[in-house]
Amino acid sequence: MATSCPNFDFKGTAVPYDDGCHFSNISCRFLTYLDHPMIHKVKYDDVESGKQGVMRGHVAGVLYMSNNFTAYAEKRVDKGKDIEEEDLELSEIKVWMDMSNRQIGQAIKYKLIDLYRHFQEDIFSDCKFLPGFAKYPVNVDFYYGHEDDTFTIYMLPGSLITIMFFMGAMMTSQTIITDRHDGVWDRSTVAGVTSLEITLTHFLLQAAVTLVQVSLVIITAFAVFQMEYNGQMWLIFLIVFMQGICGMSYGFWVSVIASDHSMANTILTGIFLPMMLLCGLMWPTEAMPIGLRYFARSLPFTISIEALRNVSKKGWLITNPGVYNGMCVSLFWTLLFGLVSVYLIKTKR
To answer: Matching PROSITE patterns, A to Z (predicted)?
Structure first.
């Protein structure tokens, strides 16, 4: 920013008259809209110094308004399509951004656009223009969600399911490997206990623990942190619980193919990052290449995350395909991991 406005007063910045509106010091008026917690203004003596600040990483961007910006902005409004190209260019607010950090850059970009929209609406209101004249010609309404929804609400379904899946997998794999190393598994087999009975025993025990874990996670998210949801709570609980059970089955399979704790931890942590990146938690599946999208949607909890989001954000019921498909995928992977694990145990014996 290369502009200073000492002792600025809003009065008289936009004065209507018969054929239009007279502007005065509207560049200073716009700068007052930048007094926002998200934006920290730094004054530079000229544009080149500001650009150097961006290049050296001192600031996230440079905003510049030309000399006599107010007069050119008034021409832009009065002349409309008949304005000359040079006047049109001088009536623009120029911004140079550092987009190396895309999250910060995009956030500032859209915040500037939003603040300018509010500024223009207030100016035109003072000029007694039609209220809709300053608005975008595209009117966007929201059927689901709100314009000011935080990114946390979007990430919540993926976070809940990812936590429960890998928590169940880690807990089950470590417990079973410990039992096997301590000789509990072999002694049970010698005593006549079948592989299916051992599996069911572990399943019931771990399912009870998972039930408690899911309850704590749900209470923390929706009761303690007051996260917003629109659907039925029992359905949200069921989807998360089924993913916890699916994670248990995955952990059981890992415990069968892993010889010790180190190998099990390597498998679990090695698969964690790829599955987290491809499940739609941070990278929407719609933005993936076609082949990768089909692969991502075949993972154990990608469609389940979409199902949970459909319930929590859209209020869909269990009869909707966008909900029960996610539950069916959880059930499929649970059975697949379980059956493969039992088969491998029998072949090893």
So the answer is: ABC_TM2
